[in-house]
Write a structure and sequence with these properties.
With 932 residues, the protein is an alpha/beta fold. Among the domains are: 156 residues, no CATH class; 252 residues, 3-Layer(aba) Sandwich (Dimethylsulfoxide Reductase, domain 2), CATH 3.40.228; 140 residues, Beta Barrel (Barwin-like endoglucanases). Helix content is 24%, strand content 16%. The protein has 25 helices and 35 strands. The strands form eleven sheets. Strands 5-4-24-23-22-6-7 form a seven-stranded mixed sheet, covered by helices on one side. It has a six-stranded mixed sheet with strand order 31-33-32-35-30-34. The radius of gyration is 27 Å and the shape is globular. The N and C termini lie far apart (61 Å). It holds the Pfam family Molybdopterin. This is Formate dehydrogenase. Keywords: 4Fe-4S, Iron, Iron-sulfur, Metal-binding, Oxidoreductase. InterPro entries: Asp_de-COase-like_dom_sf, MoPterin_dinucl-bd_dom, Mopterin_OxRdtase, Mopterin_OxRdtase_4Fe-4S_dom.
Length: 932
């Protein structure tokens, strides 16, 4: 018998280069194996602080993203009508000259006529800096689609939020509750954390209409009705308040619960502007941070014939109302009242019957020394599922209030902030919108308004921004309203723009509500035949649905071919016990005529002679790598914190330190170091500095943490603050709606502001209509936005997407697996295949998002299942709500932040005859072969 000569251990690489993954927003460390200069294999980096070697299907499949046939190959200029995909390739000099010829007159005459919006690019501190120095007020990124409600609610309530702002205390929590968490975000850290919980026997409860992913491995699942999470959360608050199972000492010390409210509903302040509490020892008013003060939660003060009460009094009065009892909300949220009460009891037992006590002395901001750190081992995590609703901001606020009432934020066992958080809204910038022809904007675009004075309004009261962010329509729109840009620009409301500049924003398909309408807007012309949106510049690495609608294409590299900066100024890779940042670097060189988009922005800035990028007309930076090293946002503080000049002599991590998680690589403030990128590369692409043990918990009030944060450059002076159960800036907007102040809303906005800007969340039952079924999308763990559907490996996991229908609705409509159904909303109809799912809220249908593709896009075969069986729910959603009879068309957004309310979609379904393909079918994007 002849035995085959098999190599059972083939050499897969002759070199390994370490960098940062880009296949989702986890930013895991990866080892990229090269053989003969080609990428052959990608694995997790075991030394990396985010993933510790764990890598998901997306990360491993990055090799297919890097070699995808849909990669753009050269700059292109449109020569046919928009949508025809008729382009000619041009040189980079021609492309940059053309872009400058469009942008320079705008900047000189009316900078607001440039609208620059980016998708999931992970470099927003840089792109916003570019837009600020160009001078346009029209900049934002992806967050207005995704999770601004979660982020803004967290900042206004407690100075941070879930995911990139913080994480559960995986090592000590005993009860973990997930609200509305799909599995595509932060997946590796959550998987690692869930593994720790399961190993310790901690309980996991999933609260989500859909039982997939994390909810499928939860010990218990509550299939809540979409959009009703706030009813459940505030009912839990009601039960805990009635039972007295809240942390009164924590509330008195660290929150504004004991702060007095004046007759106008504002926080009572002294002459220095400090909130006033009643000291239990003296019975007299005192500043909240006065050394030795013991705030009284039930304090009162008689003033001008009225008795002033505390925030805690207002909170308890509201939520002890029987309207929040489990019996009052059970039918609405789809969870029986006894189960709500049982969940409240579980939370109380975990929090108060077995607290976590760490013997770590620390000193608080009032100067009091504590010998231990005591915490409540209950933690929460939430994401888009609770935030992508019209009540999403107040729902997220309610969840943060629940955590705070338990004393389970920044204490052992609870929720912990990741450096550089916590940061209260006062520590963030206000939004800026004053533009001057030929000059820079007057400050950062995005920020956190503290009252009507901070709105982005022009002198005549009209919106200063094309997306109408920071207006009376949505005052706290901290991430902008990317989903409204194209429709507003098309309508010329509030004004006309000249150039729409997009990066990685697939607005012609899955990143828009009302997809068909957006396609029409992109190609619509005026009475002269000119496009209503005159010019579109688009940058991406791939031929998405959007590229066919551009006038100029600036092709990006793949993530393995460029420099990137995962910065403390932006979206760092920190964990609760450490500050950390990371880079990407060109582990391979492009084989196409493409450039990293951030470098292209530097090159455009140099040609346009933008301030911040040039000095006396001369460039300050050659490319993005040069910017990463030499840019300083403040003296000593730049995009990268590691190995700055003062600490450049400190070596990288030893093997023992990598294994233990310790580090000898200090950093933070310091002068630019020309060897900085090489130090990152030598250390695996990342830098870590651990929080001192004394500073590990109670960060907003811990003197050791505050001092450490200043040394790191997170802020310039210690800034302890109170958690805001009652958000005073919201009351400022209410007062304006009531007729107070110099800046007044339009008459038709007053009632909406009085209701929506309540400083304490309140629950309003949803309106009933003729569309009884909730319809949701969520992203699978193996996909991220639309990127994965071109990926040869990932397509084998998710090549098509049925509409999942609960058993009750399957029976009611006579449906079986493989049947087709019409799904109708007030905006339109789709026809799609269905599949039964029992582990689903019985009045909800759902599907995976962004699987469906338009024919001709992403270099997929025209008969690919993504283009024939795959579909989007986007066709059923409009950026505007149906008419309400008041003569107005309201944005389909949260009235506080403007976040797109994707998950408020309601539909009807009926059985349909099987069509040849999922409906609607759009004409294929013509394959590009040069001008026709």
């Amino acid at each position: 018998m002849i035995k085959p000569d098999l190599d059972t251990a083939p050499r897969i690489s002759d070199e390994i280069r370490k960098t940062t993954c880009y296949m989702c927003a986890c930013r895991c460390g990866i080892n990229v194996h090269l053989k003969d200069g080609r990428v052959t294999y990608i694995e997790g980096n075991r030394d990396h602080p985010v993933n510790r070697g764990v890598l998901c299907a997306k990360g491993s499949a990055g090799i297919m993203q890097h070699t995808a046939p849909s990669r753009l190959r050269a700059p292109m200029r449109r020569v046919g009508p928009r949508g025809s995909n008729r382009f000619v390739e041009i040189s980079w000099d021609e492309a940059l000259d053309l872009a400058v010829s469009w942008l320079e007159p705008i900047r000189r005459e009316a900078p607001e006529k440039l609208a620059f919006f980016t998708g999931r690019d992970q470099s927003q501190s840089f792109t916003s800096f570019w837009a600020q120095n160009f001078g346009t007020p029209n900049y934002a990124a992806h967050g207005g689609f995704c999770s601004v409600n979660m982020a803004a609610a967290g900042i206004y309530t407690m100075g941070g939020a879930f995911w990139e702002f913080g994480q559960p205390d995986w090592d000590h929590t005993k009860l973990f509750l997930l609200f509305g968490v799909a599995e595509d975000h932060d997946s590796n850290p959550i998987k690692i954390g869930l593994g720790k919980l399961k190993a310790r026997g901690a309980k996991v409860v999933g609260i989500n209409p859909i039982r997939s992913g994390y909810n499928a491995v939860a010990d218990e699942w509550l299939g809540i009705t979409p959009g009703t999470d706030m009813a459940l959360i505030l009912s839990l608050v009601h039960v805990l308040l009635k039972a007295g199972r809240i942390d009164l000492d924590y509330l008195a010390r660290y929150t504004n619960a004991p702060v007095l409210l004046d007759a106008d509903g504002l926080l009572l302040r002294d002459g220095d502007g400090k909130p006033q509490v009643i000291d239990r020892a003296t019975g007299a008013p005192a500043a909240f941070d006065q050394p030795g003060v013991r705030p009284d939660l039930n304090g009162t003060l008689d003033r001008d014939g009225a008795t002033l009460h505390t925030v805690f009094h207002a909170l308890a009065t509201r939520y002890l109302d029987p309207a929040y009892a489990p019996e009052a909300v059970a039918e609405t949220c789809g969870i029986p009242a006894p189960r709500i009460r049982a969940l409240a009891a579980e939370i109380a037992r975990a929090a108060f019957d077995s607290p976590v006590v760490l013997h770590r002395p620390w000193t608080d901001f009032r100067g009091e020394r504590h010998e231990t750190m005591t915490g409540r081992p209950v933690s929460f995590h939430a994401m888009r599922g609770i935030s992508a609703h019209a009540n999403g901001f107040q729902t997220a606020r309610a969840l943060h209030i629940l955590q705070i009432l338990l004393g389970a934020v920044e204490t052992p066992g609870g929720f912990r902030f990741k450096p550089p958080y916590p940061k209260p809204p006062e520590a963030h910038p206000r939004p800026h919108s004053i533009c001057t022809p030929g000059g820079a904007l007057d400050g950062p675009h995005l920020g956190f308004p503290l009252g009507p004075k901070d709105l982005a309004l022009r002198p005549d009261g009209t919106p200063a921004r094309i997306d109408k962010a920071f207006t009376w329509d949505n005052p706290l729109s901290a991430h902008g309203l990317m989903h409204m840009v194209i429709s507003n620009a098309h309508a010329g409301d509030p004004y006309r723009i000249d150039t729409l500049f997009l990066y990685m924003a697939n607005m012609a398909w899955n990143s828009s509500m009302n997809t068909r309408g957006v396609l029409e807007m992109l190609t619509d012309t005026d009475e002269t035949g000119a496009y209503r949106i005159p010019r579109i510049i688009y940058s991406d690495a791939y031929a998405s649905e959007m590229t066919a609608y551009a006038d100029l294409i600036l092709p990006d590299t793949t993530y393995l071919e460029r420099h990137d900066c995962i910065s403390l100024l932006d979206r760092p890779i920190c964990e609760a016990d450490a500050a950390a940042d990371a880079i990407r670097w060109p582990v391979v060189e492009p084989d196409r005529n493409v450039r990293g988009f951030q470098t292209v922005l530097v090159q455009l800035a140099n040609r346009l002679k933008l301030p911040g990028f040039t000095e006396d007309g001369k460039p300050k930076y050659r490319d993005y790598a040069d910017y990463m090293v030499n840019h300083e946002r403040r003296p000593g503080v730049g995009p990268l914190a590691g190995w700055r000049e003062e600490c450049s002599g400190v070596g990288g991590n030893t093997d023992e330190e990598r294994v233990s998680g310790a580090t000898s690589a200090t950093g933070g403030r310091g002068s630019p170091n020309p060897d900085q990128l090489q130090r990152y590369i030598g250390n695996g692409g990342f830098w870590v500095s651990h929080v001192p043990e004394e500073a590990s918990y109670f960060k907003p009030w811990n003197r050791a943490y505050q001092d450490w944060a200043v040394s790191m450059g997170f802020y310039d002076a210690p800034q302890p603050y109170l958690f805001q159960l009652y958000v005073e800036p919201m009351r400022q907007f209410q007062r304006a709606a009531e007729g107070h102040g110099t800046r007044q809303p339009p008459e038709h906005m007053r009632a909406r502001l009085r209701e929506g800007m309540d400083p304490l969340p309140h629950w309003t039952p949803p309106r009933e209509d003729d569309y009884p079924i909730h319809a949701l999308t969520q992203r699978p763990m193996a996909m991220y936005h639309s990127w994965g559907s071109q990926n040869a490996w990932l397509r084998q996991i998710h090549g098509r997407n049925p509409l999942y229908v609960p058993t009750r609705l399957m029976r009611a409509h006579g449906l079986a697996d493989g049947d087709w159904a019409h799904v109708t909303s007030p905006h339109g109809r789709i026809t799609v295949p269905v599949m039964e799912m029992a582990a689903l809220n019985d009045n909800t249908v759902w599907t995976w998002n962004a699987i469906g593709k338009r024919k001709g896009a992403w270099a997929l075969d025209p008969d690919a299942p993504e283009a024939t069986k795959g579909f989007l729910l986007n066709h059923l959603i409009h950026e505007l709500l149906p008419p309400k009879g008041d003569g107005l068309r309201w944005s389909n957004s949260d009235p506080v932040t403007g976040q797109a309310a994707w998950f408020d979609l309601k539909v009807r379904i009926e059985k349909a005859d099987p069509p040849a393909e999922a409906q609607p079918v759009f004409p294929p994007i013509p394959q590009r072969g040069g001008p026709l």
